[in-house]
Design brief:
The chain has 117 residues and is of the alpha+beta class. A hairpin with a 3-residue loop joins strand 4 and strand 5. Its EC number is 2.7.8.7. InterPro entries: 4-PPantetheinyl_Trfase_dom, 4-PPantetheinyl_Trfase_dom_sf, ACPS, Ppantetheine-prot_Trfase_dom. Its main location: cytoplasm.
């Protein structure tokens, strides 16, 4: 049974501008594991796409959970990782989480579906 669905769309340029003004943005958005992956990316544009995609995923996840961000959970507490095939995943105890992330030149979007197990 579906527990919740969330979707988010973010402008990549907006994330790039925020990142240029404050590099602390990475620590506010990413977990330590995600930050390691972020730092392995050599292409500057790809780094921003990764950051924007994770931002959108965490917003979508918080919408699917129904709590929103800030009061009960912070972005850097939601770990989105890729499995051995590259599929994005989020672990959420007692639930199966389906994650999809996509990018265009200007936007990053993510959809999250949480299913009761």
């Amino acid at each position: 049974m579906i527990y919740g669905i969330g979707i988010d769309l973010v402008e990549i340029e907006r994330i790039q501008q925020l990142y240029q003004r404050q590099h602390k943005l990475v620590k506010r958005i990413l977990t330590e594991q995600e930050e390691l992956k972020f730092n392995e990316i050599n292409n500057k544009q790809r780094k921003i796409e990764f950051l924007a995609g994770r931002f959108a995923t965490k917003e979508a996840f918080s919408k699917a959970v129904g709590t929103g961000l800030g009061q009960s959970i912070a972005m850097n507490e939601i770990n989105c990782y890729n499995n051995e095939l590259g599929k994005p995943n989020i672990d959420y105890e007692g639930y199966k989480v389906h994650v999809s992330i996509t990018h265009t030149e200007h936007y990053a979007m993510s959809q999250v579906i949480i299913e009761e197990t």
